[in-house]
Design goal:
Layout lengths: L2 E7 L1 H4 L7 H11 L3 E8 L3 H13 L3 E5 L10 H8 L4 E3 L1 H13 L14 E3 L3 E3 L8 E7 L8 E7 L3 H16 L5 E10 L3 H18 L4 E6 L3 E10 L2 H23 L3 E3 L5 H12 L3 E5 L5 H7 L8 E6 L3 H8 L3 H7 L4 H15 L3 E7 L14 E9 L5 H9 L15 E2 L4 E9 L6 H27 L1
Parallel strand pairs: 1-2, 1-3, 3-8, 13-14, 13-15
Antiparallel strand pairs: 4-5, 6-7, 7-8, 9-11, 9-12, 10-11, 15-16, 16-18, 17-18
Bound molecules: adenosine-5'-triphosphate (ATP).
Length: 470
Amino acid sequence: VKRVGLLITGNEVLFGKTRDTNGPHMAAALRKVGCEVRRSLVCGDDVEEILRALDYLFENCDVVLMTGGLGPTSDDLTAEIIARRFRLPLAFNDEAWAACVDAFARMGRSAVPETNRKQANLPVGCRLLPNPNGTAVGFSVSGELGDGQVSGQKTVYCLPGVPFEMEPMFAASVLPNLTPSGAVTFQRTWQVFGLGESAMQERVGELERTLQNDLPGIVVSYQAHAGYVTYGCFFSAPHSAAAVAAETLVDGAYAQGVEKAFGRHIVGRSELSLAASTISAFTEAGVTLAVAESCTGGALSKELTAIPRSSLCYLGGITTYANSWKEQFLGVSAETLQNRGAVSEATAAEMASGLLLRVNADVVLSITGVAGPGGGSDRTPVGTVCFGLAVRSARVDVQGLVSRLEGFKWGAPQEAPEAVGVCVSEGVTLLTTTVRFGSRLRRDVIQMRACVQALGTLAMVAESLSMEQR
Ligand code: ATP
C-alpha cells in the first residue's frame, strides 16, 4: 500500500482567502481506493517553506501530491522547487509548450503571452500530466531525493490549484497509478437525522467496540452536519476474500444493531445528501414536490435545485416574505395572519396547503420563522420556526409517515391541536410542527438549521416513498 502525503500550496489558501478543497478531495478519493494518506500540509508561496514541507512529508511517505503554483506568475514556484529537491535541471519542455499553445487555441486565442513560456520550464525527465481544462500542464517526477536526508525512491505529482482543473487531472493521471492492486474497499453509510453525535455514540458504542475487535483496522466515522450526521464505517482489505469475510461481519449483527439503535432517525442509507436522496426517491416514485419558504429566503429551494435532474420531481419554490405575498401567492387568510401571526403553525399549514392546491403538487413543505436578530416576541422568540407539510394522500401512503413524524413532534396533539391531520380538501393530509432552535443563535445559523430540518423531513417522506416501492 502506498503511503501518500498531500501538500497544498498557495498564499490565498494559507491566509484563509480560499478554502482548501483540493486536500479533502484527494484524501477522500485516495482512501476510497485503499491508499494510506499519512499527512496533509498547507504552505504559502515560499520556496524554503515548501522544501521543508516536502522533506517532512517524504520522511514517511512514498508519494507526495502537490497542488498550486504551476501558473506563469512570480509566485508560481513548483517546478523550480521540485527541480531543486530532485537535483534536476530545469529546461524548456516542447511538449508542455505545445499543450499550452493548444489550450490557448481552445479558448479561441492564437497568441500566447510570452509570460506563459515559464509554465513550460519543467524538471528534465518529468512526466507530463495533461490538463484538459487549463493552460498549465501538471507533471510528475520519480527518483532519489538529492539532499541525502531521505533515501529511497520517491514520487511527486504536481497539479494546478484551480479545483476544476485539478480534479479531473487527479482522477485521470494520478489516482489510477496509486490504486493498490488487489485491494478491495467497502463502506456502509447511514444518514441519521435528529440525533446528536453523543446520543448516537451512546447507542452504538458497544457495537462499535465489538466490530473493531472482530475487524481490526475498520474505521468508524461520524460526520456531523447542522442537524444530521452521516454515520458509517470504512474498510480496506488486501484481497477480495478478506473483503467478503469483512462484509459478512459488518452486514450481520453490526448493521442490524445500528438499524435498531437509530431506528426512525435513519433517513438514508447511502452517501447521498438529504437533498439528493429526497430528489432521487421522489423521482423514482413519480411524486412531485414544491416548497413555500419565508425566513429561509429560498435556501431550501437552492439546496434542492443544486441536485442534477431535480426538475424531474421538483416543481419549484416560492419565497413569500411579506404577509401580503403570503396572502396573494399562497392564499393564507388575512385572519390567520392577524390572529395567529405570520410565524405560527396555522400560517405554515395554510402556506403548504395553499401552494399544494394552487400548483397541484403531491407534496409541499412550508417554512415560516423568526431568524432574528430582531422581530422576536414572547410568544414567538427569535429562533422559532414553524413547518407545514401537505401531502396528497392518493400519491403517498401517509399512515407510516404520520406515525414517524409523530416521533419528531410533528402534529403531536399537545403541541398543535388545531392543525393535526386537518383535511383541507379531499385526499390532502396536513401536518405542522414548531421547532425552537434557540434565541441566541446567529441569523444565518437559524436559517441553515431550519433548512436542514426541512430537508430531514423531506428525506423522511422520501424514506416512506421508497419503503412503499420496496
Ligand atoms: P494558475 O495557472 O491559475 O496560476 P496554479 O496551479 O498556479 O494555477 P494557484 O495560482 O495556486 O494555481 O491557484 C489558482 C486559484 O485556484 C486560486 O486563486 C484559488 O482560487 C484556487 N485554488 C488554489 N488552491 C486551492 C485549493 N487548495 N483549494 C481550493 N481552491 C484552490
